[in-house]
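pipeline stage [seq->struct] | target=Glucose-1-phosphate cytidylyltransferase | organism=Kribbella karoonensis | residues=266
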Amino acid sequence: MKVVIFCGGHGLRMRSGVDSAPKPMMTIGDRPVLWHVMRYYAHFGHTEFILPLGFGGASVKEYFLRYEETVSNDFVMTKGGQQIELLESDISEWKITFVDTGIDTSIGERLRRVRPYLEDDDAFLANYGDVLTDAPMDKIVDHVLTSDITASLLAVPPQDSFHVVEFGTDSRVTGLRSATDLNVWINGGYFVLKKEIFDVLHEGEDLVGDAFPRLAAMSKLEAIPHHGFWAPMDTLKERSMLEDLHRSGKKPWALWSRQTSPMAAV
């Protein structure tokens, strides 16, 4: 299945200074978070990507045009570097379509503008380019394709450590509860969408804010609860947490690292 990954966000909360890179190009280890998201999908056999570009789109194009396999793969060098033999490969089987969809375009409109590249696919995957998970995408896809729903989203518990304050008419606090203790779920992205999504997504609209409520009213939208790993990279604090996990070798989202590469097994 094709995978649409939205890459046009400014990522203002991620910046400590002047930076022209969009949020999906912020790195975890030696690779952008976008690369980690794409590797996740490739692990499940989804290697055809469509990237709706916006702010900083040139940096996304430049990164893949000058992609260096040796950064994240073992290799054998001979003849003083004139000959390189890769022992593993990241993206050799990937097909990536880069589409300029405008600087301030909504997510829904970005999706509409890449519709021609989805051809007549009955279903496709979509995601923000800055959220990581270990969700079983193969099982999710199988479930959606055999159901009568039009779209699904990954539903996850709140990740922030804020507290919900309970108080009466006199403003005296009667209780404090962590948001993670409440029966509350948030949109975690990782969408599975059928082509009928375009019947309820109109020009200039948002996917989640406009199209999804229409599907919900029609009982055509399903939440897929996930209690496992899920982490956004919206802030420097969240990026630091992901960097720490990467540095320690505990990378729950890196499902591909738990399998033997075909090239390495030769």
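stage status: PASS
auto-comment: Residues 236-248 form the longest helix (13 residues). The chain is about 25% helix and 25% strand.
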